[in-house]
Amino acid sequence: MKLAERKIELDAKKSKKDIEIAESRFITERFSKAVEQLVTNNNITVVMSGIYTLSKIASDSPEYHFLVMKVLASFIRGKPLEYAPQDSSNSQGYPKVRLTIQEAITAIGQRNYRYDVSGETLDLSRSLFVRANLVNANFRGINLREANFGNTNLEGVDFSGADLEGAIFYGSDLRNAILKDTKLKGAKYCSETRFPSNFDPDIEGMEKQ
Q1: What is the pTM of this model?
Q2: From residue 206, how far is each of 103, 182, 201 by CA, in Å?
Protein backbone atom coordinates (compact mmCIF):
# COMPACT_ATOMS: atom_id res chain seq x y z
CA MET A 1 0.00 0.00 0.00
CA LYS A 2 2.81 2.36 0.90
CA LEU A 3 4.56 1.64 -2.42
CA ALA A 4 1.36 2.46 -4.29
CA GLU A 5 0.93 5.70 -2.34
CA ARG A 6 4.55 6.61 -2.99
CA LYS A 7 4.10 5.99 -6.71
CA ILE A 8 1.01 8.21 -6.77
CA GLU A 9 2.91 10.94 -4.95
CA LEU A 10 5.83 10.75 -7.39
CA ASP A 11 3.50 10.76 -10.38
CA ALA A 12 1.70 13.81 -9.00
CA LYS A 13 5.00 15.66 -8.51
CA LYS A 14 6.10 14.76 -12.04
CA SER A 15 2.80 15.96 -13.48
CA LYS A 16 3.09 19.22 -11.59
CA LYS A 17 6.65 19.69 -12.83
CA ASP A 18 5.60 18.93 -16.42
CA ILE A 19 2.81 21.51 -16.15
CA GLU A 20 5.20 24.12 -14.77
CA ILE A 21 7.66 23.48 -17.63
CA ALA A 22 4.88 23.72 -20.20
CA GLU A 23 3.58 26.96 -18.68
CA SER A 24 7.06 28.46 -18.58
CA ARG A 25 7.63 27.55 -22.23
CA PHE A 26 4.26 29.06 -23.15
CA ILE A 27 5.07 32.34 -21.36
CA THR A 28 8.50 32.47 -23.01
CA GLU A 29 6.94 32.00 -26.45
CA ARG A 30 4.32 34.69 -25.78
CA PHE A 31 7.01 37.08 -24.54
CA SER A 32 9.24 36.50 -27.58
CA LYS A 33 6.36 36.98 -30.01
CA ALA A 34 5.22 40.19 -28.26
CA VAL A 35 8.74 41.66 -28.37
CA GLU A 36 8.95 40.82 -32.06
CA GLN A 37 5.65 42.64 -32.64
CA LEU A 38 7.11 45.75 -31.02
CA VAL A 39 10.41 45.89 -32.85
CA THR A 40 9.67 44.55 -36.32
CA ASN A 41 6.17 45.80 -37.14
CA ASN A 42 4.79 49.21 -38.06
CA ASN A 43 1.15 48.17 -37.91
CA ILE A 44 -0.48 49.97 -34.96
CA THR A 45 -2.86 47.09 -34.23
CA VAL A 46 -0.04 44.56 -34.13
CA VAL A 47 2.16 46.77 -31.94
CA MET A 48 -0.71 47.47 -29.54
CA SER A 49 -1.36 43.72 -29.32
CA GLY A 50 2.29 43.21 -28.39
CA ILE A 51 2.08 45.85 -25.65
CA TYR A 52 -1.12 44.33 -24.25
CA THR A 53 0.49 40.88 -24.18
CA LEU A 54 3.60 42.18 -22.41
CA SER A 55 1.46 44.03 -19.86
CA LYS A 56 -0.48 40.83 -19.17
CA ILE A 57 2.74 38.84 -18.74
CA ALA A 58 4.11 41.49 -16.35
CA SER A 59 0.90 41.30 -14.32
CA ASP A 60 0.67 37.50 -14.19
CA SER A 61 4.34 36.48 -14.02
CA PRO A 62 6.47 38.36 -11.44
CA GLU A 63 9.65 36.74 -12.77
CA TYR A 64 9.07 38.53 -16.10
CA HIS A 65 7.84 41.82 -14.63
CA PHE A 66 11.05 43.84 -14.69
CA LEU A 67 12.16 42.37 -18.02
CA VAL A 68 8.88 43.53 -19.57
CA MET A 69 9.39 47.00 -18.11
CA LYS A 70 12.89 47.14 -19.66
CA VAL A 71 11.51 46.17 -23.07
CA LEU A 72 8.79 48.82 -22.88
CA ALA A 73 11.28 51.44 -21.68
CA SER A 74 13.48 50.70 -24.68
CA PHE A 75 10.46 51.01 -26.95
CA ILE A 76 9.54 54.42 -25.49
CA ARG A 77 12.98 55.98 -25.15
CA GLY A 78 13.61 58.76 -27.64
CA LYS A 79 10.25 58.45 -29.41
CA PRO A 80 7.96 61.51 -29.42
CA LEU A 81 4.45 60.99 -28.08
CA GLU A 82 2.98 63.59 -30.40
CA TYR A 83 3.26 64.22 -34.12
CA ALA A 84 1.87 66.62 -36.69
CA PRO A 85 -0.95 65.52 -38.99
CA GLN A 86 0.00 64.98 -42.62
CA ASP A 87 -2.04 68.04 -43.56
CA SER A 88 -0.23 70.55 -41.36
CA SER A 89 -2.40 73.36 -42.73
CA ASN A 90 -5.33 71.90 -40.78
CA SER A 91 -4.89 72.73 -37.08
CA GLN A 92 -7.86 70.59 -36.00
CA GLY A 93 -6.71 67.60 -33.95
CA TYR A 94 -3.15 68.90 -33.79
CA PRO A 95 -1.01 67.48 -32.40
CA LYS A 96 -1.93 63.83 -32.71
CA VAL A 97 -0.90 61.27 -30.09
CA ARG A 98 0.88 58.00 -30.84
CA LEU A 99 -1.36 55.50 -29.10
CA THR A 100 1.38 52.88 -28.97
CA ILE A 101 3.72 55.17 -27.05
CA GLN A 102 0.99 56.27 -24.64
CA GLU A 103 -0.01 52.64 -24.01
CA ALA A 104 3.59 51.66 -23.27
CA ILE A 105 3.94 54.66 -20.93
CA THR A 106 0.75 53.63 -19.15
CA ALA A 107 2.04 50.07 -18.71
CA ILE A 108 5.29 51.31 -17.16
CA GLY A 109 3.31 53.69 -14.97
CA GLN A 110 1.54 50.66 -13.50
CA ARG A 111 4.81 48.89 -12.68
CA ASN A 112 5.25 47.17 -9.32
CA TYR A 113 8.64 48.36 -8.08
CA ARG A 114 8.81 45.41 -5.67
CA TYR A 115 9.63 43.24 -8.68
CA ASP A 116 12.59 45.40 -9.72
CA VAL A 117 15.89 43.54 -10.06
CA SER A 118 18.46 44.45 -7.42
CA GLY A 119 21.30 46.52 -8.87
CA GLU A 120 19.38 47.44 -12.04
CA THR A 121 17.61 50.70 -12.87
CA LEU A 122 14.89 51.23 -15.43
CA ASP A 123 16.24 53.64 -18.05
CA LEU A 124 13.87 56.27 -19.43
CA SER A 125 16.49 58.99 -19.74
CA ARG A 126 15.80 61.62 -22.44
CA SER A 127 12.30 60.25 -22.96
CA LEU A 128 9.59 62.58 -24.24
CA PHE A 129 6.53 62.76 -21.99
CA VAL A 130 5.15 66.12 -23.17
CA ARG A 131 1.39 66.17 -22.48
CA ALA A 132 1.35 62.41 -21.82
CA ASN A 133 -1.29 60.92 -19.53
CA LEU A 134 0.83 60.20 -16.45
CA VAL A 135 -1.73 60.57 -13.65
CA ASN A 136 -0.73 58.37 -10.69
CA ALA A 137 2.16 56.81 -12.63
CA ASN A 138 4.80 54.93 -10.63
CA PHE A 139 8.20 56.30 -11.71
CA ARG A 140 9.81 55.40 -8.43
CA GLY A 141 13.59 54.94 -8.66
CA ILE A 142 13.68 55.29 -12.47
CA ASN A 143 16.45 56.98 -14.45
CA LEU A 144 14.66 59.98 -15.99
CA ARG A 145 17.67 62.19 -16.58
CA GLU A 146 16.95 64.89 -19.19
CA ALA A 147 13.43 63.56 -19.78
CA ASN A 148 10.93 66.14 -21.03
CA PHE A 149 7.73 66.59 -18.97
CA GLY A 150 6.80 69.97 -20.45
CA ASN A 151 3.15 71.04 -20.16
CA THR A 152 2.27 67.75 -18.45
CA ASN A 153 -0.12 67.07 -15.60
CA LEU A 154 1.90 65.08 -13.07
CA GLU A 155 -0.97 64.53 -10.65
CA GLY A 156 -0.07 61.76 -8.21
CA VAL A 157 3.09 60.69 -10.06
CA ASP A 158 5.51 58.95 -7.69
CA PHE A 159 9.04 60.20 -8.41
CA SER A 160 10.44 58.87 -5.11
CA GLY A 161 14.16 58.17 -5.49
CA ALA A 162 14.05 58.89 -9.22
CA ASP A 163 16.92 60.58 -11.05
CA LEU A 164 15.47 63.67 -12.76
CA GLU A 165 18.69 65.63 -13.14
CA GLY A 166 18.47 67.86 -16.20
CA ALA A 167 14.81 66.99 -16.80
CA ILE A 168 12.48 69.61 -18.29
CA PHE A 169 9.35 70.78 -16.47
CA TYR A 170 8.31 73.87 -18.42
CA GLY A 171 4.64 74.52 -17.65
CA SER A 172 4.30 71.21 -15.77
CA ASP A 173 1.98 70.69 -12.82
CA LEU A 174 3.89 69.00 -10.00
CA ARG A 175 1.62 70.17 -7.19
CA ASN A 176 0.49 66.66 -6.23
CA ALA A 177 3.55 64.72 -7.37
CA ILE A 178 5.65 62.75 -4.87
CA LEU A 179 9.21 64.09 -4.86
CA LYS A 180 10.75 62.30 -1.89
CA ASP A 181 14.53 61.76 -2.28
CA THR A 182 14.29 62.80 -5.93
CA LYS A 183 17.42 64.05 -7.72
CA LEU A 184 16.54 67.32 -9.46
CA LYS A 185 19.87 69.07 -9.93
CA GLY A 186 19.88 71.03 -13.18
CA ALA A 187 16.23 70.27 -13.93
CA LYS A 188 14.60 73.13 -15.85
CA TYR A 189 11.41 74.96 -14.92
CA CYS A 190 9.68 78.23 -15.69
CA SER A 191 7.29 80.69 -14.04
CA GLU A 192 4.31 78.56 -15.16
CA THR A 193 5.60 75.38 -13.49
CA ARG A 194 3.58 74.42 -10.42
CA PHE A 195 5.19 72.78 -7.36
CA PRO A 196 3.93 71.22 -4.11
CA SER A 197 3.49 73.60 -1.22
CA ASN A 198 6.66 74.09 0.84
CA PHE A 199 8.80 72.89 -2.09
CA ASP A 200 11.68 75.15 -3.09
CA PRO A 201 13.05 74.26 -6.56
CA ASP A 202 16.13 76.40 -6.07
CA ILE A 203 17.13 74.51 -2.92
CA GLU A 204 16.77 71.30 -4.92
CA GLY A 205 19.20 72.64 -7.51
CA MET A 206 16.67 73.27 -10.24
CA GLU A 207 17.20 76.04 -12.80
CA LYS A 208 14.59 78.60 -13.75
CA GLN A 209 14.57 79.53 -17.42
Answers
A1: 0.81
A2: 30, 12, 5
In order, the DSSP letters of 70-129 are HHHHHHHTT--SEE--S-TT--TTPSEE-HHHHHHHHHHHT--GGGPPTT---B-TT-B-
Closest CA relative to residue 80, chosen from 55, 45, 105: 105
How far apart are the C-alpha atoms of 182 and 191, rounded to whole Å?
21
> ∠ CA 111-120-99 to the nearest 5 degrees?
40
Return the pLDDT at 80: 80
- How far is the C-alpha of 96 from the C-alpha of 87, rounded, in Å? 12
**Which burial class, exposed, middle or buried, applies to 16 when counting CB atoms under 10 A from its CB (0-12, 13-18, 19+)?**
exposed
pLDDT in tens, 127-152: 999 888 899 999 999 999 999 999 99
pLDDT at 19 over 60: no
DSSP string computed for 122-164: -B-TT-B-TT---TT-B-TT-B-TT-B-TT-B-TT-B-TT-B-
Environment class of 174 (CB within 10 Å of its CB; exposed 0-12, middle 13-18, buried 19+): buried
